[in-house]
Amino acid sequence: NQTQPFEWYFDWKYAEQEVSPFVKNKDLALIIGCGNSEMSSELQQKDVKMIVSIDISKTVISQMAEKYKENKNLLWYEMDCTDMSFKDELFDVVLDKGTFDAIFCGDNSISNILSSLSEIWRVLKNNGFFIEISFGKPKDRLNCFKKSDENWKFFDPMFIMNNAYIYVLQKIDNEENK
């Protein structure tokens, strides 16, 4: 039962410069698998007006909601990223730091990643960004992401530190481009 913030990879400040162009001045962001990382708070203080954070752990969501109860621009929900209850096209940007890496270690990993990508696509506004921070090598992650049925625009992966990469995918809705 960890109540102190824990960063699996590194503090947000190390990814901020690369990620900031995709999140700056956005109104609403979703962070999947937030854990008890400080990322939600740090992102909301600098780049995004309101952050919704989800995690499958009821305990961690309760702890984070209590810790940040004074900040009405940070919302916390117990939720699975493969089956979210948010309405369609709600978020300007969706971020993940490590959740997909954890999913890749579990049963039915490819199916669960593709379900998550489908849900992220659904809740993202058109032209919105999905930002994935992962230890997964570009060849492996991009091959998996490209199995998605959605029409993502892929940006070049960025190496960050500690053998981690930042992947940026943009939702491009073909229906609007016809």
Task: Describe the 3D structure.
The chain has 178 residues and is of the alpha/beta class. 33% of the residues lie in helices and 28% in strands. The chain contains six helices and eight strands. The chain has helices at residues 13-23, 39-46, 58-67, 99-104, 109-123, 138-145; strands at 26-32, 48-55, 74-78, 91-97, 124-134, 152-154, 158-159, 165-171. Strands 1, 2, 3, 4, 5, 6, 7 and 8 form an eight-stranded mixed sheet that branches. The longest helix is centred in the middle third of the chain and has 15 residues, at 109-123. The protein is globular, with a radius of gyration of 15 Å. It starts with 12 loop residues before the first helix and ends in a 7-residue tail after the last strand. The model has no long low-confidence stretch (mean pLDDT 91).
Overall mean pLDDT: 91
| Strand coverage percent | 25-35%
Structural class: alpha/beta
Number of continuous helical runs? 6
Report, as a whole number of angstroms, the end-to-end distance. Answer: 51 Å
Report the helical percentage: 25-40%
Inertia-based shape: globular
Q: What ranges have pLDDT less than 50 throughout 5 or more consecutive residues?
A: none
The value of Rg in angstroms is 15 Å
The main sheet comes to: 8 strands, mixed
Question: SSE order in H/E notation?
Answer: HEHEHEEHHEHEEE
**Strand tally, please?**
8
